[in-house]
Amino acid sequence: MKKLALLSLFGSVALAQALELKLEPMGTINVSGALTVYTIHSNNKALNDNKNTRYDVGSTIISLSKSAEPFGFTLIGGAYATPVVGVALSKTSESTDLFSPIPVAYLEYSPMKGLSIQAGKLPTIIGYESAFTYQNNYIQRGLVWNMQPVINNGVRITYSTDLFFVKFGVNDGFYTLSTTDPKPALEASLGLTPIKDGSIALNVILPDKNSRPNDTADPSNKREINLVASYTLDKLSLGADLLYVEAPKSDKANVPEKAKASGVALHVSYDLKPFKLSGRIEYVKDNSDAGGLDLVGLGDGNKGLTFTVTPAYTHGPLFLRGELSYVKADKEFTVNGKKDQTRIGVEVGFMF
Length: 352
What we know:
This is Porin. This protein is mainly beta.
């Protein structure tokens, strides 16, 4: 593609390729995003769900980023859906309102190789799945993801080498800056990359005991220990996401008695371009507690098994994927008093 030279107040601007802007003296700005729509049909509506079938926008996202050399930034804006297996399907507008139309926005400084400092609205270090549907292998997130934080407001320091990485940060936990009495949280991660295309990381988030609930999390004082592993062998990718959650007793946090939950999710995908097949299996357990808190999303004291299979086809920027998910629980969790739920879904759109 021919370079298109322009003049601006910041110097010369060149469009080197469709999704890359070269700004002098700022540097290269990477542009990416997605525009997708989806539909999901449930045979049994989840609790608080008002529709068996949901038609909506999956993602209208644009991402702008610059590598920290030594200064950089990431800015992600738009509308985004966050459907979860077994849980009521919210409107995309309702999901977007949780973290605003600009869910990620942070500055980054890298004073030396391997060291970076990030500050702003940051994606969580907890978990395997992304907050944005188009970045996931599935249309719906899993119930393990449903227990995890999504976005934090804070500061994070990362040091990485070829063999390991360490992260430490201070943030607002489960987005508690959205409350009138924000509380701090500590986060930490230790990861190993002992082999090519393989990694394992232990992640921890420790919110303040008295963090008040908000629209993104109730309760929001959940202390979490998370183990994530991934490995890629040619076209085959494997992943694991293990999680332990504990919400300590606190009247200010609306936790009358200590509550616990746990879960494990296993992921597999096989990428035979232009086709890709992905699958997830989960087991989740919400421990019964005197306060009656539901940390998983299937009801207090419930436990369940979930399966998700997602075949996808990609042609250039265009993609189409279908999905079949199944949830089997020990106790009723649907509007019509069933212990299981089957969903089918389709998503279509393009990514750039």
